Amino acid sequence: MVIKKGLIGILFWGMVCCSCQKDLIEYQSGDIKIEVQAGDEWKHPFDLFLGIKKQNPPQIAIWIEDLEGNYLTTLYVSYKAGTQSWSGNSKKRKEALPYWNHARLPFQPGQPVPDGYTGATTQSPIPDAVTGATPNGNFDLVMTPAKGLNRFIIKAEFNHSTDYNEYYPKSATQADENYSAESGQPAVIYEVMVDLATREKEYKMQMIGHSSPDGSDGQLYTDLSGLTSARNIVKKITIKIQK
User: Contact, 159 vs 187, CB < 8 A?
Assistant: First the structure.
């Protein structure tokens, strides 16, 4: 199944799930395909009740910025993060995808927002994003840039709930710099700059850092030394230009 959605003035895009018959899809000249390949830690055990665990895929946001780092539009955000529809939990999880949340809001990075919260709600979901259930494995996004959009930055953020480790333990308190109410390890961030004026047909997104562990700001933290399983949520992300 391919979903096409128009985002006025920016681009058109579609999502191709890993279960789709991609061989039946025809890509047009100028299309850009974002291929996300799941890593060994794509699914993470989440405690339900009575010792029962569920293997959950990550929360995801993929978006576009200009070369100055100004947010343009969201290509995809996973449903729970885009609507704050957390199963059996009415709490707002501002630590899920804070780098993306702060980028899209009309606030300066790092400045506090009303009530210290940056996310959407079920009554006010993300207005310019297409949300969907998180894919259980590899998936593609297909976009056709609007006329004149030749150089831009693609960014992506991934996060698991209860992904604790030695450096981001469950025992951390709000006074600690490594505290997270639900996530444990913070969301990891990838980016790549795309220039359609060149002959490049393929780009590789690189992990550039992580977001705020508690979601209190939209800063990029480049020290990755405390991350373990979060490094392996994604194996690789490839951007392919259809010439």
Answer: yes
Q: Considering Cα of 163, then 100, then 73, then 115, what sign does the dihedral take? A: positive
Parallel, antiparallel or unpaired: strands 131-132 and 71-78: parallel
Instruction: Write out the two tokens for 238.
Output: 């490839």
Enumerate residues 6+ apart whose C-beta is below 8 A from 192.
153, 154, 203, 204, 205, 206, 237, 239
**11-25, 100-114, 217-231: range with highest mean pLDDT:** 217-231
Phi, psi angles (nearest 5°) of residue 121: -130, 170
Residues 71 and 63 sit within 8 Å (Cβ to Cβ): yes
What are 157-214's pLDDT values in tens digits? 999 999 999 999 999 999 999 999 889 999 999 999 999 999 899 999 999 999 999 9
**pLDDT tens, 46-104?**
766 566 667 889 999 999 999 999 999 888 888 888 777 766 555 668 889 999 988 88
Q: How far apart, in Å, are the Cα atoms of 145 and each of 86, 111, 197, 215, 229?
A: 32, 31, 13, 31, 34
DSSP character string of 37-74: EE-TTSSEEEEEETTEEEEEPPEEEEEEE-TT--EEEE
- 10 Å CB burial of residue 211 (0-12, 13-18, 19+) is buried
Instruction: Output the CA–CA distances (angstroms, integers) from residue 26 to 93, 129, 239, in the order listed.
Output: 38, 24, 17
Say if residues 210 and 186 touch (Cβ distance below 8 Å): yes
Strand partners, 60: 158
